[in-house]
Specification:
Blueprint: E1 23-29, E2 34-39, E3 44-48, E4 61-63, E5 68-71, E6 75-79, E7 87-94, E8 97-107, E9 111-114, E10 123-132, E11 135-139, E12 143-147, E13 154-156, E14 161-164, E15 168-171, E16 179-185, E17 193-200, E18 204-207, E19 215-223, E20 235-239, E21 256-258, E22 265-269, E23 278-284, E24 289-295, E25 299-303, E26 310-318, E27 321-329
Parallel strand pairs: 5-12, 14-20, 18-27
Antiparallel strand pairs: 1-2, 2-3, 4-6, 6-9, 7-8, 7-10, 10-11, 10-12, 13-15, 15-18, 16-17, 16-19, 19-20, 21-22, 22-25, 23-24, 23-26, 26-27
C-alpha cells in the first residue's frame, strides 16, 4: 500500500476485535452474563459470556495426615493435583482463633512450605481450593494437625555460670510433657555429646563424670506421648574443682564398660549401691534407643552383638541420678 502524506485516510481493521493493546479493567456481571473490557487506546468493549470452561475438580489433601501430631514449626503441606487446575489457594488457621486465617494464593505446584508455626502444641486447620478457567473448584475438606510440644525454660545453672562444683541441671515443667531429654556437650554444636538421657520424668538431673575447670553446654527438650519437641536454647557453664562424688577419677562414682572398644559382649558397672535397681539405655548419637533394660546389681553382663560398628551413648539411671558416657563398637 502507498500513503499520501497528510491526506492519507486510515481505515480501522477488525473493529470488533480488541487487538494487541493493554486492557486496564475487565468486569463481569453474573446476572445477565455481560462482560466489559476497558482498553488503553481502543476504547471499551462489551459482550456476553456464552460459555466457560469446566470448574477444576475438588482437591484431595495428602500431608500432613488428618489429626497428625508433633508437627515441626516448618512443614510442607501437600495435596493431589486437581483436574483443570492452573493454581491453588491454601487457607491455614489456628483452631482456637478462627479469625487467624492465612491465605497463600497463586500456588502452581501441589505443595507449599509453611514456616513459623507455633509450638505448644497448637492445633491448626487447613484446606486447599483449585482455580482454573472456569473459576474455583470449591474448598477441600479441612484437615487438622497439631505442632510439637514446646521446649522447657532452663533454670539452673545460670547461663555462663562458673566454678560449678555439683552439676545439677534444672528446668521448668512443660504442661503435657511425659518426660524430658537432656544433652550435655563440650562445645556449642554438641559434638561430641558427653552426657545424654531421654525419658526422664523429673525436671532436675545430676550429671557426673565431667572434667574439672571445663566449659560445657546443655539443653533440654520435652517429650509427649507421640514424639519429642524441639530443644531449648542452649546454656553454658564452667565446672570448678568437682567434689569426689562427681570426679572422673573417683573409682566409686565411675561408670565403666569393659572391654572397650566392645565387640559382642561387655560388662557395665555403675556406682549405684547394691540394692538399687537401675536402668540401662544405649542410644545412637542422634538419640535413637537401640537397647534398654533394667538391673538390680552394680554390674551387668550385656550382649551387644546386635549393634553395628560405630559410636554409641551409654546412659545409666536410678531416679534422677544419671550417668552417661560414649563407647565404640567394633566388628
Amino acid at each position: 500500500p502507498q500513503t499520501n502524506g497528510m491526506s492519507t485516510v486510515w481505515t480501522q481493521a477488525a473493529p470488533e476485535a480488541i487487538g494487541n493493546v493493554p486492557c486496564d479493567m475487565v468486569v463481569a456481571r453474573a446476572s445477565d452474563e455481560q462482560i466489559a473490557v476497558a482498553t488503553h487506546g481502543r476504547g471499551t468493549f462489551t459482550g456476553r459470556i456464552t460459555s466457560l470452561p469446566d470448574r477444576p475438580a475438588r482437591v484431595q489433601l495428602n500431608l500432613p495426615a488428618n489429626m497428625d501430631r508433633a508437627i515441626e514449626p516448618e512443614v510442607t503441606l501437600k495435596w493431589s493435583p486437581a483436574q483443570g487446575a492452573s493454581s491453588y489457594t491454601v487457607r491455614l488457621w489456628r483452631a482456637d482463633r478462627p479469625d487467624s486465617v492465612v491465605m497463600i494464593s497463586g500456588i502452581t505446584a501441589t505443595s507449599t512450605r509453611v514456616t513459623m508455626l507455633e509450638v505448644g502444641p497448637v492445633l491448626y486447620f487447613w484446606n486447599v481450593e483449585a482455580y482454573g478457567g472456569g473459576g474455583g473448584g470449591g474448598t477441600s475438606e479441612s484437615w487438622a494437625f497439631s505442632t510439637q510440644i514446646r521446649p522447657p525454660v532452663l533454670v539452673s545453672p545460670e547461663s555462663g555460670a562458673t566454678a560449678v562444683t555439683a552439676v545439677d541441671l534444672v528446668w521448668n515443667r512443660v504442661p503435657g510433657a511425659v518426660g524430658y531429654g537432656i544433652e550435655v556437650g563440650s562445645n556449642a554444636a554438641f559434638n561430641p555429646i558427653v552426657a545424654k538421657v531421654d525419658r526422664l520424668g523429673d525436671t532436675t538431673v545430676r550429671v557426673r563424670a565431667l572434667e574439672n575447670n571445663k566449659r560445657y553446654f546443655w539443653r533440654v527438650r520435652a517429650e509427649d506421648i507421640d514424639a519429642s519437641g524441639p530443644y531449648s536454647d542452649r546454656r553454658s557453664f564452667v565446672t570448678g574443682i568437682l567434689t569426689s562424688i562427681n570426679a572422673d577419677d573417683d573409682a566409686t562414682s565411675q561408670l565403666r564398660i569393659e572391654p572397650h572398644p566392645v565387640r559382642e559382649r561387655a560388662t557395665i558397672c555403675t556406682p549405684f549401691d547394691h540394692d538399687r535397681r537401675w536402668t540401662l539405655r544405649i542410644t545412637t548419637l542422634d538419640g535413637r534407643v537401640v537397647h534398654e533394660a533394667a538391673y538390680g546389681s552394680p554390674c551387668a553382663d550385656v550382649s551387644l552383638n546386635a549393634l553395628a560398628a560405630g559410636t554409641y551413648v551409654l546412659v545409666v539411671a536410678h531416679g534422677t541420678d544419671v550417668q552417661s558416657r560414649s563407647f565404640t563398637v567394633i566388628k
